[in-house]
Design a protein that fits this description.
This protein has ten helices and eight strands. With 275 residues, the chain is α/β, with parallel strands linked by helices. Helix 4 links the parallel strand 4 and strand 5. Helix 1 packs across helix 9, helix 3 runs parallel beside helix 4 and helix 4 packs parallel to helix 5. One of its GO terms (molecular function) is oxidoreductase activity, acting on the CH-OH group of donors, NAD or NADP as acceptor.
Length: 275
């Protein structure tokens, strides 16, 4: 058995997690699912203060005191993100898992915001998590799940900036999850490529911000979207089962599955291409 395989039955139980972009959508569903799996505590960060506070109230009522905590935070702000990490570790004296879910989708006019949140913040959060959890830093090891998209595996002329950020997340996560890093940190880093999911990021109001060609493309490509609960269940399965460096697909309301072999094979082909 590979060193990075985890005992499924014990990994979430009584552990402390941090979820970015956790106030609504897939992030909120992951927060709920972690608590249902008996996580000791789940902190979730987001800029959406009203939604975050409402979710915290709901979770404390359902799961009990101190089980959940909302922290208002713009993940693209290094100081705010560092403060959020400090608050979690200072209060609970440990951190066992981080799900980097925060993302935005807009047209290319807002490219910098997409890059800052979707990719740069994922890198920053991953590195901060390794500082807190890494065995080489005095931590107990853990797991980091970075949320990418099926668009990272799809050559398309639509949504070029968003797709590029999600492709960058995938490549970064595969590298950070290598056996070399895992042997040092004892932190598994895995990637989830989500298929289209029924969240606000794909609602009609958001899509109206795009040009007509992009909107028509999105509408035709995603007539059916998976439920947020199905997406969250897939993330939970990855937390329990994924080897470090693995890439899993969660789409179409189907069980999560490991596609790492296909990706490795594809990169082998590309690396042999001669110009």
């Amino acid at each position: 058995m590979a060193a990075s395989v985890v005992k499924r039955s014990v990994y979430i139980n009584d552990k402390v997690f941090l979820v970015t972009g956790g106030a609504a959508g897939v992030g909120a569903a992951v927060v709920r699912a972690l608590l249902a799996e008996n996580a000791r505590h789940v902190a979730f960060i987001d800029v959406a203060e009203r939604e975050g506070a409402a979710l915290e109230t709901e979770l404390l009522s359902k799961f009990g005191p101190l089980r959940a905590k909302f922290i208002k935070c713009d993940v693209s702000d290094e100081d705010q993100l560092a403060t959020a990490y400090f608050q979690v570790v200072d209060k609970y004296r440990r951190l066992d898992g981080v799900i980097n879910n925060a993302a935005v989708l807009s047209d290319s006019r807002h490219y910098k915001r997409m890059i800052d949140i979707n990719f740069t913040a994922t890198v920053s959060s991953t590195l901060k998590a390794l500082e807190k959890m890494g065995a080489d830093k005095g931590g107990n090891g853990g797991v980091i799940v970075n949320i990418s998209s099926l668009l990272a595996l799809d050559l398309s002329s639509h949504l070029p900036v968003y797709s590029a950020t999600k492709t960058a997340v995938l490549q970064f996560s595969i590298a950070m999850g290598s056996e070399e890093y895992f042997a040092k940190t004892q932190v598994r880093v895995a990637t989830v490529c989500l298929g289209p999911t029924d969240t606000a990021i794909l609602n009609r109001t958001n899509l109206e911000n795009f040009d007509k060609d992009s909107t028509a493309h999105l509408t035709s490509r995603v007539p059916v979207r998976q439920r947020v609960e199905a997406a969250a269940n897939g993330v939970i399965e990855v937390i329990k089962s994924a080897k470090s460096g693995a890439t899993w697909i969660v789409a179409n309301d189907q069980p999560a599955y490991d596609c790492s072999g296909n990706i490795a094979e594809a990169y082998q082909v590309l690396s042999k291409t001669q110009v």
